[in-house]
Amino acid sequence: MPTINVQLFEGRTLEQKRAFVEAVTKVTVETLGCSVNAVDIIFQDVKRENWATGGRFASDPPKA
To answer: Is residue 61 among the annotated active site residues?
Structure first.
């Protein structure tokens, strides 16, 4: 059973997540040859203040 963990900034709508789930599930079934019911997708919505890249938090204002 493939389990796919997706971390992203909070704020995506349920409709956006639903479209993502449908697309990723379809590709996973086609690629791995598993059943639709075997595919688990877990979303973790992360606040920008809890995500840093390159030494800067995503919530920090852009550098001038």
So the answer is: no
